[in-house]
Amino acid sequence: MIERTLVVLKPDCVQRGFCGEIITRFERVGYKIVGMKMIWADGEFFKKHYYDVEERHGIEILMGNVKSMTNGPVIAFVLEGINVIENIRKMVGPTEPKQAPPGTIRGDFAHYTYALADKNKVAVKNMIHASANKKDADYEIGLWFSVDEMHNYTTVHEKHTL
Predict the structure, then answer these.
(1) What are the φ and ψ backbone dihedral angles of 110, each rounded to 5 degrees?
(2) What's the CA gap between 16 and 108, in Å, rounded?
(3) Against a cut of 0.90, is the pTM above it?
(4) Which residues lie below 8 Å from residue 159, measured CB to CB, with a gap of 6+?
(5) For a tag on the chain, would you pick the N or C end, based on fewer CB atoms within 10 A?
(6) Per-residue pLDDT tens digits for 58-82
């Protein structure tokens, strides 16, 4: 099934200069970028993005995420393709980089642990956000992008695989 998902390259990814390499991984698989922007959002925006984190994990985790995400610009983009939500999550790897196997984005580019994040009272530095499911993808895409910022076109990959 063709679907869309939101991916955000976090400030630690942007600051370390791995954006192009990570975007290339998604394009090589055949996923299509249908919207993209770089922004330096404020805390209120990220509170909307992380709308359920306080309820699930507490205010400390929410505010740690907000502080981490407002530490610099991020690159947000929408990918489109077959089973894109599930497959991008596999490519990204588990939230804690320590648990992420080699070959995943977090396994290859991050090494932070929950223990270190807790000790330093910061959010875990894990490079990238990807929507967890269809409901989150729909919400997040609508939060980050207007309809006018989304584009429809056909890639060479689509011509040969669909």
Answers:
(1) -130, 155
(2) 13
(3) yes
(4) none
(5) N
(6) 898 889 899 999 999 999 999 999 9
CATH 3.30.70.141 fits domain 2-147: yes
Q: Which residue type sits at 129?
A: H
d(C-alpha 21, C-alpha 27), whole Å: 10
CA–CA separation, 71 vs 37, rounded Å?
A: 17
Has residue 121 got a pLDDT over 80? no
Binning pLDDT at 50, 70 and 90, where does residue 142 land? Answer: very high
Residues designated as active site: 129
Per-residue pLDDT tens over the stretch 2-54? 999 999 999 999 999 999 999 999 999 999 999 999 999 999 999 999 999 89
